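> call design_seq(struct)
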């Protein structure tokens, strides 16, 4: 099956420990082996918010998250790899795989296409194994509780708790009963060699601690050929790889990877806590003898040690996108010594600080676990991509120097994250917003591909449609964030909107739509370019180009050209203006040549409009007809065509919570004056689509978007149209939340009469005054204040019904 992103690509208190309810851990102690086997009841109950974070949420099903060690927005994600090929291995880890290949230093959180898994390290004893061996499972996707039932006769993955036997190689078995983690720390026992592996991290470095429980010699295998690859039978393609020994305690190297981010370059410097007695370098799995340096495409190293059981062996690794000297400098600055416990404590403290930006009272510990795990996931990306000296590798593959105090970031899943993650940042990460936004503008200037779409470590993957960096930039401008480089942004985004021959845009400009007999996913492209026009119009206005801003707003109504009033669906249209047949609203395309919709079908794409709802509803025949159409979406049979991508999951009728095109849809009832239906639908989704379990996400986590939806929804807010600066109310799940907005500003959100059976808003007050609107602006919230929802068991249809109380739409 062709999967979501691959289809497109082809055309913190310092020493707090966690409690038993989340991840089984024990106090730090010298007897690490004894601690590993201590009963969970011996674990210390921490007092911090991190005790509510379960890093294993999303590591089952199709969440595609990793459980390893990182710090907020850090460049290094040091985590175990259980598999390196196929869709459900996008993060390098799945709870069902049963064995570990090793521990690598870069991972993607929740993506549907993948790369990374750089610099794999595996401790072992006995003969050196150079290949990982087979994981012992069929190379097909796992099944998630959020999937539709499998088709009869279709091959099925083994259950996640099945006993499997991996093939001969360096991978080692593990048990989830001997695996534990909390933010900034991961630990597991490797069963085959009885080695305790522990991981922690700083921004640009990873720190390993290996405790060998058996006496004798041991070694570390460093696999520089290891990396994600789509086809299990075709290894990760690597070029320009180097490995070099420096003395008897340091290994440095580089490689260029030709995977999703084609040509991505990474450098590393590794030091060990005691000298190795011998080192072997391998090229194409052939020993290079006594040489201290190797070049090629398939490089590995084995570092040998005597009497490994005498004391833990520590390994520290620094990364750089610039050069080996940068990796060494990052390592020296961030990890000068061997203080594993101190590094772990500082990582946890960093997470405590960031999680503390929102403090909640919730109806249950389960809700707290889901909320803080979600909040944790929102801070795993974007990721830092610069060196401690301010150098970074740009989108032009050149090395640039940042001004003092500036940073460069990567890993922007913008098609996903413009919807909820970046709006969340504008509330609780306000100091980061100008840095991130100006970084996107800088990328647009550097990149031969123009405005960012899905940039990863200095390479534009081109994944997904639209160019939604426009939304992130425009949102920051519209919300009044200081220091945004509008003068640089406008010509860059104008070029894309008005001039570039990019993915159907010439058709869009000429015909007012992209014909589905001329280009792939043309209906979704048309609709998303409409939103990008709306976004770019704000950049134009900020730059003083008011006539072009108006023209862009007018053009953002091109959605009308793919809407068929006779069936009240958007649908594929040919270059001759005729509707293409056959048409079925649950199909992803009208032919087998390509899809007409991006990870959606006509049911879902019909509700893609985010910015012009008042006008859009007239195409249906008015707000009542639009409300009825929404009802039809949620009540339709949850069927999908046979060529639908696996991302379309978490179905409620034809609504698919497992994928982003649906994420704003439950809030659209508010625009039709039926806000009580938004309340009901949102509460249902909050209750059913998230669980504090490995298979606890209804789809890919997508670099924080799936989790940001929950965080905002639990607060009672959602940015249907981020550029408008408005938040539509939903159905707040929390009893109370206190948001630190920066400076001395605080936003308190409180619910009265809240309960599992009380999803309906009866009334709202803002700073003690009645509030009749079903929405509120960013400007109000960002100043701080007190928002109170009074909830009840029965709907109050009058709330938000009047036209004056509905969320505003675009004004041309």
């Amino acid at each position: 099956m062709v999967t979501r992103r691959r289809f497109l690509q082809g055309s913190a208190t310092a020493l707090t420990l966690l409690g038993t309810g989340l991840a089984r851990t024990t106090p730090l102690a010298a007897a690490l082996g004894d601690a590993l086997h201590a009963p969970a009841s011996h674990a210390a109950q921490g007092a911090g918010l991190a005790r509510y974070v379960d890093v294993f949420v999303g590591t089952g099903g199709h969440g595609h998250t990793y459980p390893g060690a990182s710090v907020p927005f850090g460049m290094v994600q040091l985590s175990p790899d259980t598999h390196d090929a196929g869709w459900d291995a996008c993060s390098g880890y799945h709870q069902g795989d049963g064995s570990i290949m090793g521990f690598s230093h870069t991972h993607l959180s929740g993506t549907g296409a993948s790369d990374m898994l750089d610099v794999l390290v595996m401790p072992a004893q006995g003969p050196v194994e150079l290949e990982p061996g087979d994981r012992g499972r069929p190379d097909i996707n796992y099944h998630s509780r959020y999937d539709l039932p499998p088709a009869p006769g279709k091959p099925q993955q083994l259950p996640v708790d099945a006993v499997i036997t991996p093939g001969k190689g360096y991978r080692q078995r593990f048990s989830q009963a001997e695996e534990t983690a909390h933010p900034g720390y991961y630990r597991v026992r490797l069963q085959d060699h009885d080695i305790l592996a522990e991981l922690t991290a700083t921004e640009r470095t990873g720190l390993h601690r290996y405790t060998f429980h058996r006496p004798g010699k041991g070694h570390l295998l460093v696999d520089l050929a290891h990396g994600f690859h789509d086809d299990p039978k075709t290894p990760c393609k690597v070029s320009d790889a180097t490995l070099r020994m420096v003395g008897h305690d340091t290994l440095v190297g580089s490689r260029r990877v030709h995977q999703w981010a084609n040509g991505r370059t990474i450098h590393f410097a590794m030091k060990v806590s005691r000298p190795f007695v011998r080192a072997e370098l391998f090229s194409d799995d052939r020993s290079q003898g006594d040489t201290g340096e190797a070049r090629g495409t398939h490089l590995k190293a084995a570092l040998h040690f005597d009497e490994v059981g005498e004391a833990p062996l520590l390994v520290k690794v620094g990364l750089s996108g610039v050069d080996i000297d940068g990796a060494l400098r990052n390592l020296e600055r961030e990890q000068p010594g061997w203080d594993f416990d101190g590094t772990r404590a500082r990582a946890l403290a960093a997470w405590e600080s960031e999680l503390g930006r929102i403090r909640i009272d919730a109806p249950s510990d389960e809700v707290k676990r889901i909320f803080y795990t979600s909040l944790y996931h929102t801070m795993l990306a974007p990721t830092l991509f610069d060196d401690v000296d301010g150098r970074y590798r740009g989108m032009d593959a050149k090395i640039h120097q940042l001004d003092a105090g500036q940073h460069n970031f990567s890993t922007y899943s913008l098609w996903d994250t413009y919807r909820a993650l970046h709006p969340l940042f504008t509330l609780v990460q306000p100091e980061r917003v100008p840095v991130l936004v100006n970084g996107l503008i800088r990328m647009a200037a550097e990149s031969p591909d123009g405005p960012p779409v899905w940039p990863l470590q200095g390479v534009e993957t081109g994944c997904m449609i639209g160019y939604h960096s426009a939304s992130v930039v425009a949102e920051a401008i519209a919300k009044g964030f200081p220091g945004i480089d509008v003068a640089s942004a406008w010509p860059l985004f104008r070029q894309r909107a008005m001039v570039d021959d990019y993915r159907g845009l010439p058709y869009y400009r000429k015909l007012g739509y992209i014909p589905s007999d001329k280009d792939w996913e043309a209906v979704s492209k048309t609709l998303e370019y409409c939103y990008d026009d709306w976004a770019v119009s704000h950049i134009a206005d900020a730059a003083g180009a008011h006539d072009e801003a108006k023209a862009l707003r007018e053009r953002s109504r091109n959605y009308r050209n793919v809407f068929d009033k006779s069936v009240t669906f958007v649908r594929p249209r040919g270059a001759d203006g005729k509707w293409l047949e056959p048409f079925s609203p649950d199909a992803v395309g009208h032919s087998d040549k390509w899809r007409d919709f991006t990870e959606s079908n006509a049911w879902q794409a019909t509700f893609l409009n985010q910015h012009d709802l008042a006008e859009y509803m007239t195409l249906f025949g008015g707000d009542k007809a639009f409300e009825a159409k929404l009802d039809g979406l949620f009540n339709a049979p949850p069927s999908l065509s046979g060529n639908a991508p696996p991302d379309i999951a978490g179905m409620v009728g034809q609504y698919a919570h497992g994928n982003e095109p649906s994420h704003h849809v439950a809030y659209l009832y508010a625009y039709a004056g039926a806000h009580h239906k938004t309340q009901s639908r949102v509460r249902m989704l909050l209750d059913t689509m998230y669980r504090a379990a490995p298979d606890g996400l209804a789809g890919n986590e997508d670099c924080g978007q799936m989790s940001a939806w929950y965080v905002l929804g639990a607060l009672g807010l959602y940015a249907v149209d981020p550029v408008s600066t408005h938040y539509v109310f939903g159905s707040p799940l929390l009893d109370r939340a206190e948001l630190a907005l920066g400076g001395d500003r605080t936003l308190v959100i409180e619910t009265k009469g809240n309960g599992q059976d009380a999803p309906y808003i009866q009334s709202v007050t803002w700073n003690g005054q009645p509030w009749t609107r079903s929405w509120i602006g960013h400007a109000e919230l960002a100043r701080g204040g007190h928002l109170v929802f009074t909830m009840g068991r029965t709907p109050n249809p009058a709330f938000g019904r009047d036209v004056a109380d509905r969320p505003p739409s675009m004004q041309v």
